[in-house]
Every structure is written in structure tokens, then in C-alpha cells.
Write a structure and sequence with these properties.
10-stranded mixed β-sheet, 15 helices, about 15% strand
Length: about 550
């Protein structure tokens, strides 16, 4: 039997076709009248069974400004699929612009759009307080756990999570704007980080006509290969009955050695590795498993200070190697099936977010073990009984992986439609991100530059690597006013150059650093306040051991 909401949606769609005036929209500006408003399937750009506004309430934000909060659902085609739940916020002080908020992890809870955007300075007003119509969704399934992948067994839910929910929710949001304000918006923006950064790449690559400007923070855009690389990463930690695991003490000892060696390479010892390329060159001896490695355990070293076993070093080398599928993927313009290295030898802290990312009490608790298990089990193999960490082999699922990649990945560098329409993309990544390695974004940017050339690309895309910034925290927990930068570029033609980030932490320190356009990095000038961005110079010079 079809659920009640699908019966209702079908009936209302029929009535709208039969008697167009029967379901007329309410008067502009009437929030309460929007409750129970129904959108028919033809009002949404991808196939659905329509949508419904379930609640409409006038609320007040922290600044005392009123807005109309709408919540509702977009109904699936398949009765076995979950609905897409959303929230739309329409402020009385509307600035004629909209901002679509991205999600995180595997989503599963509604992004309200009422708070700060990704990495926004806490001292700034939220976009809603500034007059933006804001919105977000749960991406088409409901789950309280970050990497609960069970929804991936349902094809429509998987397609919605992959990217289709973005278009569907956008179209409902645009309907609400026209209905409530009586006019269309002047500019539409998108901001998201992590999975939300993946979604930002999706709207650039797939739904270019819907957005004027996009900010993608530390994007999980190459999601399929990211999770397969994470599986290899987790297996290395679990190898030899856990002998490959770096316990918290071992991880901290290794990180301390890397920082002692690499921190000064930018001209200042401040706990931030600002020149990761030089750091990588300077740690070449740490990538050896022989007596030339000063961290390899031996009888004298083991007694004197923390050291790593050969098996632990092999785990770090596994993280440091690119992951390559033994067959091509056709989702990418160059058919690439390669995911770049992680960053253990150039500044990873392994405590990004304040907890031991490699596992506090064992490798099965490692952060990467969660997505590494979920995607192969639910999205690829569809096998609830398989021991993914010992039994899964991607070679056995080559056809499924090729089928899945276009739904699950936003890794194409064909952004012609976005560029030709005048769209602007800002994206950035922390150099010590332990959740998604920075080289994933660097690789994508270099491929973009190869396709378009530096000059043409500069007109539409700017990319930044931020030293010390992790996924959640990091030695430099950056906050950046990216919406201001995007607005100025899109609306006033102010082309962004190097930016400035402020540090966010619990004690309220206001240390600032330059955010340099890649491949430049911030070098201390040798004088001036080391906590002030003006004391640094963005440079592309090399330093460190070759």
C-alpha cells in the first residue's frame, strides 16, 4: 500500500492539473497561510511526488529580527524511499538573496540554516540575521549517527544523498521566495564544508544555473575514492592483529618529532607548519624503515624516548601512498581512479577535533574506520554480513563501483556551464586535515588549471590552503569571512586575492594569519607581531631539505 503522503501528493497534483485556481498560492508575506501548501511534481526540476509545507511559524532571531520558518518534506517516487525534509527561513529584512547551507558526514538531520556558515567568524552576524533567506535539508534520509549508511541500500535515497536532493530542495526554496516575497531573488549562493563541500562541488558541476557563487570548504568531493582510501588506511591500523596501530602516546610522540623539525621552516616557531612542502622534503628520512630513521625503535632508543616499530612506520607509509583502483572510473574527465596521499609526514596531528583519530583504545575506534566500513557495505556490496575489513575486495565489485561513482562523486573538472554563466567558486582546505586530506583539493585544483589555464581559471575560481587548519580544529583553528569575499566578487566585481583568517578557540585569542592563494604560503617576515597577519608574506619560495 502506498503511504498516505504519496496518496495525498498524487491527489493534489491531479487537482492542480484539473483546476489550476483551486490550489492558488497565499498572499505574499502571509507566513501562517503557507502551512499545508503543496508543490506539484512539475514545480520541482527532478522527479518527485511533490512537496508539502508542514509547518509555518513566525520566529525571531537572536538580533530581534522576525522571520518565517517553514518546515516540510519532498516526497519520493518509491514508497520504500524516505522523504527529503527541509527548513526554509524567510526574514522580514530580506536582502533579496538566498544562501543554501550544506550538510556534513552522511547527513541525516535537517540543516536549519539559522546559524553561522562553515568556519564563519563567531563575532559576525549569521546570514539569516543579515537578511539572507537561508535553507537546508537532511539530504533525503533520517539518521542521528554520523556514518549510518543503511539508507544507501535504497536506490532513491542514495541518489538523493548523491546530489539530487540539492536540486529538489533548491527548487522548493525558490518557490517559497516567490510565494512569500512576491518576487524572485537577485543572487543565490551556496556554502558548505566536508560533505557540504562535496555538495558545493555538486552544484557547480551539475546545477550551475541555480547559483551565482559557491564556497566549498575542505570538500569530500571525491567521496567514493576517499572512503576506499580510508578502508586501506583502517586496514593498515588493524594489520597484524593491531600491531600496525599507533596508540595515542605513539601518535603524539611522532607528531611532536615532525613539528620540532618542520615548525621553524616558515621562519617562526609557533606551533604551525606553514610550509608543508618543505616539511615533506625535510621528513624524507622518517619515511625509511631502516637504521637511517631516527624514530625506528631499537634497544637504546626504546628506553630513551618514544619510538615507532617497523610495523607502525609501515602504517604511516600506507597513509602516505596514493590509493589507486586497478580499473578506470569514467565519472572523471581523465578517467582517473586515484586518490592522493594523506599527510602524516607534513603536519597531521591525529587529534583533529580533540579526540584520537587513530583510535583511543584500539584501531577499530579509528575515525576512518566508520566511512571505510559504511560505503563498501551498504553502497557497493550491499552485504550486511560481510566482514568489510578482511573480506571486501573492490575488484569483485568493479561494475558496481563504476555505476556508483557518477552518483556518489563530484570530481569532474568540466565546469564550463558555471564559468560561462559567470559563476564564482571559492574553495579552501586546511593543510592538516585528518578527515579529508588536503591533497584531494590540491589535485582537483591542478586538474582545473590544466583544463582551463591559469588566466581563465582566475576569473572564476580561487583556491586556498590554510596552514595549521584541521577539519574541526587544528593548531590554527581558522575562521574566515568567505561570504563577504564571495559577495564582493559576484556583486561588485572585487576579485579576491590573499585573505585573512582569525583563530577561534576557547580562550578568545585573536591571532590572525594570511590565507594565501595556492601554491603560496605565509612566511614570517622576520619582524612584527607574530600573532598578526601583517607580519607575514605570502610566498612561493622553497625551503627545507631537498
Amino acid at each position: 500500500m502506498r503511504p498516505d503522503y504519496l496518496i495525498r501528493a498524487s491527489l493534489l497534483s491531479f487537482l492542480a492539473l484539473l483546476c489550476p485556481g483551486l490550489l492558488a498560492a497565499p498572499d505574499a508575506g502571509d507566513c501562517a497561510a503557507l502551512v499545508d501548501q503543496h508543490l506539484t511534481a512539475d514545480q520541482i526540476g527532478l522527479p518527485t511526488s511533490g512537496a508539502l509545507i508542514r509547518s509555518a511559524r513566525t520566529k525571531t532571531d537572536e538580533a530581534g529580527s522576525a522571520y518565517c520558518e517553514l518546515t516540510g518534506a519532498i516526497f519520493p517516487l518509491r514508497y520504500t524511499a524516505p522523504e527529503i525534509r527541509f527548513q526554509l527561513n524567510l526574514p522580514d529584512n530580506w536582502n533579496t538573496k538566498t544562501l543554501h547551507f550544506g550538510g556534513g558526514g552522511f547527513n541525516g538531520t535537517v540543516v536549519t540554516g539559522t546559524g553561522h556558515y562553515t568556519k564563519q567568524p563567531e563575532s559576525e552576524l549569521t546570514p539569516l540575521q543579515r537578511g539572507y533567506m537561508t535553507y537546508g535539508s537532511d539530504s533525503g534520509h533520517q539518521s542521528a549517527e554520523r556514518f549510518d549508511g543503511r539508507f544507501l541500500l535504497e536506490p532513491e535515497a542514495l541518489a538523493n544523498f548523491g546530489h539530487q536532493q540539492l536540486k529538489k530542495v533548491h527548487d522548493v526554496a525558490m518557490w517559497s521566495v516567490k510565494t512569500y516575497y512576491g518576487r524572485a531573488s537577485t543572487h543565490n549562493y551556496f556554502i558548505g564544508g566536508s560533505q557540504g563541500g562535496h555538495e558545493a562541488f555538486d552544484v557547480v558541476q551539475r546545477y550551475a544555473d541555480d547559483y551565482d557563487g559557491v564556497v566549498a570548504a575542505y570538500p569530500a568531493h571525491n567521496l567514493l575514492l576517499l572512503h576506499l582510501s580510508a578502508l586501506r588506511y583502517a586496514r593498515a591500523l588493524m594489520s597484524d592483529a593491531g600491531a600496525g596501530w599507533l596508540d595515542p602516546a605513539s601518535a603524539k610522540g611522532f607528531v611532536s618529532h615532525v613539528y620540532a623539525r618542520c615548525d621553524p621552516l616558515d621562519g617562526l616557531s609557533d606551533g604551525i607548519i606553514s610550509n608543508p612542502d618543505a616539511c615533506y622534503r625535510s621528513t624524507s628520512d622518517l619515511r625509511r624503515i631502516d637504521a637511517a630513521n631516527p624514530l625506528l625503535c631499537n634497544e637504546a632508543l626504546n628506553a630513551a624516548k618514544p619510538c615507532l616499530t617497523g610495523r607502525q612506520l609501515q602504517t604511516l607509509l600506507t597513509m602516505n601512498a596514493e590509493y589507486r583502483l586497478p580499473f578506470a572510473l569514467y565519472v572523471d574527465d581523465d578517467h582517473q581512479a586515484v586518490f592522493p596521499r594523506w599527510t602524516p609526514f607534513e603536519g597531521s596531528t591525529f587529534f583533529d577535533g580533540g579526540f584520537p583519530n587513530l583510535g583511543g583504545e584500539g584501531p577499530d575506534q579509528a575515525l576512518q574506520a566508520m566511512p571505510a566500513e559504511a560505503t563498501p557495505r551498504y553502497a557497493i556490496a550491499g552485504d550486511l554480513a560481510m566482514d568489510i575489513f578482511s573480506e571486501f575486495d573492490p575488484l569483485n565489485y568493479a561494475a558496481r563501483i563504476r555505476e556508483l561513482a557518477p552518483m556518489y562523486t563530484a570530481n569532474s573538472v568540466d565546469i564550463d556551464r558555471f564559468i560561462n554563466a559567470g559563476g564564482k567558486l571559492l574553495f579552501y582546505h586546511g593543510a592538516v586535515d585528518d578527515f579529508i586530506p588536503v591533497h584531494s583539493s590540491i589535485d582537483y585544483f591542478l586538474r582545473l588549471r590544466t583544463r582551463y589555464g591559469a588566466s581563465r581559471l582566475d576569473d572564476s575560481v580561487r583556491f586556498y590552503v590554510i596552514p595549521g587548519m584541521g577539519h574541526v580544529s587544528g593548531p590554527f583553528n581558522a575562521r574566515i569571512p568567505m561570504l563577504d569575499t564571495l559577495e564582493a566578487w559576484v556583486e561588485r566585481g572585487v576579485t579576491p586575492a590573499d585573505l585573512v583568517a582569525i583563530e577561534h578557540n576557547d580562550v578568545g585569542a585573536d591571532r590572525t594569519r594570511p590565507v594565501c592563494r595556492y601554491p603560496a604560503w605565509p612566511r614570517y617576515s622576520g619582524s612584527g607581531d607574530p600573532d598578526t597577519a601583517s607580519s607575514f608574506i605570502c610566498t612561493i619560495e622553497k625551503s627545507g631539505s631537498e
